[in-house]
Amino acid sequence: MAQQTKRMCTECSKEFLVIPQEATIYDEKKLPLPDQCPACRHKRRMALRNERALHRRICTTCGSPMLTTYAPDAPYAIECQKCFWKHVG
Ligand SMILES: [Zn+2]
Ligand SMILES: [Zn+2]
């Protein structure tokens, strides 16, 4: 059984523990142990999600499939670039 591992967060320099269950998961996935505390990892995940997540949506105007950063359940009408520029031009 793996032991608790003490690590220092590269982001906020706080010490944090990697619990054995977590260490096992990283080990199974052949991933290195995290360099950041859970709080900083959470922050980073949220930031990544906001910047990078792309969803498949259907343009509400012309019906063509497109990728957008809007969440699938976002309550907006989503338009593809073509339709968007039609309004502008
Ligand atoms: Zn941290
Ligand atoms: Zn369209």
Characteristics:
89 residues; alpha+beta; 2 domains; two-stranded antiparallel sheet; 3 helices; elongated; binds zinc ion
* Bulk shape: elongated
Largest sheet: 2 strands, antiparallel
**On the 0-100 scale, what is the average pLDDT?**
86
Q: Rg from C-alpha positions? A: 21 Å
Q: Please work out how many helical segments DSSP would assign.
A: 3
The helix/strand series, from N terminus to C terminus, equals EEHHEEH
Helix/strand class: alpha+beta
Number of strands: 4
The percent range for strand residues is 15-25%
Q: Name the hetero compounds present.
A: zinc ion
Please give the order of strands in the largest beta sheet. 1-2
What percent of residues adopt helix (DSSP H or I)?
A: 25-40%
Poorly predicted ranges: none
Number of separate structural domains: 2
Can I get a quick summary?
This protein has 89 residues and is α+β, with helices and mostly antiparallel strands.
Q: Helices and strands in order, then pairings?
A:
Blueprint: E1 5-8, E2 15-18, H1 20-28, H2 38-52, E3 55-58, E4 65-68, H3 81-88
Antiparallel strand pairs: 1-2, 3-4
The structure holds zinc ion (2 copies).
One zinc ion binds next to helix 2.
Structure explained in plain terms:
The chain has two domains: 5-51, no CATH class; 53-88, no CATH class. The protein is built from three helices and four strands; from the N terminus they run ββααββα. It has helices spanning 20-28, 38-52, 81-88, and strands at residues 5-8, 15-18, 55-58, 65-68. The strands form two sheets. The chain has a two-stranded antiparallel sheet with strand order 1-2. The protein has a two-stranded antiparallel sheet with strand order 3-4. A hairpin with a 6-residue loop joins strand 1 and strand 2. The radius of gyration is 21 Å and the shape is elongated. The relative contact order is 0.12. The model has no long low-confidence stretch (mean pLDDT 86). Bound molecules: zinc ion (2 copies). One zinc ion is lined by residues 59, 61-62, 64, 79-80, 82-83.
